[in-house]
Specification:
By secondary structure, this protein is of the alpha+beta class. It is built from five helices and 22 strands. The chain has helices at residues 3-12, 92-127, 133-165, 211-220, 339-356; strands at 35-37, 40-55, 58-62, 67-72, 79-80, 85-89, 168-170, 175-180, 187-188, 193-198, 203-210, 223-226, 232-234, 238-244, 250-256, 269-285, 290-292, 295-301, 307-311, 313-317, 322-327, 334-336. Strands 2, 11, 12, 13, 14, 15, 16, 20 and 21 form a nine-stranded antiparallel beta sheet that branches. The radius of gyration is 38 Å and the shape is elongated.
């Protein structure tokens, strides 16, 4: 086997198998494919628990004013951009109150401008000592009263605007409508639920951790979410509820997911692998495993160059793409890293050798 090829193979091996890669050079010339001598590696000790995906932002919007519903712009399964109007109430009364507040503000502003001009006029005359101090005091008092009425009118307009805005139910964030609680034409009262929605932008996973594991999980602070049996993502952070469920003796834990959700949606079932420390295990690369119907195995290469497909019992898939071996292999044995070429060699090379004998 060429040395440059061996060097490239060393660079491609996972970090956990760097020590075992030294065996590639020894005895590798007797078979036409890559092999690996197994050694025990230190891997994360994990506990896998069930979890469920849920939306961080999920809310039910309620009526903040009473009135008849005249328009429902979005329904269940519709996507609603942030700030868009979802439901409109009849707003005749609120519009009238808003216009009245506008008129009151215009009057208060005119009165304030008049009082301000009168104050400036009286102040100039008083400075020339042509009027008594009492007249300046009266002008000052009128100006202050006009300013107070103007501020009250401005507050009244803001209140009227708020009451008018209550007739338009807007989306607090971009999301999907999941449930509608009212019908068009229905009279809604204050506090009545109107519509429920969730946002898909931020998701999290919720799981229950048994009491016997909670201290180790807290101390480690590491976990990964298993997506489809082959891929996993690291949890962005964990939130521990400071009390246990009295019925199950488990602690609720929330795990944050990165924005985008990795193809996950609220309500989906996932597995959560909590890191509980480190342990020594025998591992093999995932690409070396062969699946033949009900049989899971690897091709073992013996010292005399013979190979055989051996049944193995595998454990969990690790984050770096390796798989734990629970039974069927021992440290020091050599396996084929390319099961396709190993299978071809098993059918052709060894048969040809047997015929030559």
């Amino acid at each position: 086997m060429h040395r440059s090829w061996l060097r490239s193979r060393f660079l491609r091996l996972p970090a956990g198998l760097c020590l075992a890669a030294a065996a590639l050079a020894a005895g590798a010339a007797d078979v036409p494919f890559e092999t690996l001598t197994l050694e025990r590696s230190t891997v994360a000790r994990e506990q896998v628990l069930d979890g469920a995906v849920e939306a961080v932002h999920q809310a039910t919007m309620s009526a903040q004013t009473s009135g008849r519903i005249v328009e429902i712009l979005y329904d269940v399964d519709d996507f609603v951009p942030e700030g868009e109007v979802i439901i409109r109430f009849r707003d005749t009364e609120q519009q009238a109150g808003y216009q009245q507040a506008q008129a009151a503000l215009a009057e208060a502003r005119a009165r304030f401008n008049q009082a301000s001009s009168e104050y400036e006029r009286i102040k100039g005359i008083y400075e020339r000592q042509l009027v008594a101090k009492a007249q300046l005091d009266n002008a000052t008092a009128e100006l202050r009263a006009a300013r107070a009425r103007l501020e009250a009118a401005q507050a009244g307009l803001e209140s009227a605007e708020e009451q008018l805005e209550y007739t338009r139910v807007r989306a607090p964030y971009s999301g999907i409508v999941t449930e509608r609680h009212v019908e068009l034409g229905e009279n809604a009262s204050v506090g009545q639920p109107l519509i429920t929605g969730i946002s898909l932008d931020r998701l999290r996973v919720v799981t229950q951790v048994p009491q016997r594991l909670i201290n180790a999980v807290r101390e480690s602070g590491k976990a990964r979410i298993l997506l489809n049996g082959e891929q996993s993502v690291e949890a962005g952070g964990m939130t521990f509820f400071p009390y246990a469920d009295a019925a199950t003796n488990t602690f609720k834990v929330r795990l944050a997911l990165e924005e985008g959700g990795q193809g996950l949606f609220p309500g989906m079932f996932v597995k959560v692998a909590f890191n509980l420390g480190e342990v020594s295990r025998l591992v093999v690369p995932r690409e070396a495993v062969v699946y033949r119907s009900e049989v899971t195995g690897v091709y073992v290469v013996y010292d005399d160059g013979r190979i055989a497909l051996r049944h193995v019992r595998l454990g969990r898939l690790l984050a770096d793409g390796q798989i734990e071996v629970l039974a069927g292999l021992s440290a020091g044995e050599r396996i084929a890293l390319d099961p396709v070429r190993a299978g071809i060699y098993l059918k052709t090379g060894q048969v040809a050798g047997a015929r030559d004998e």
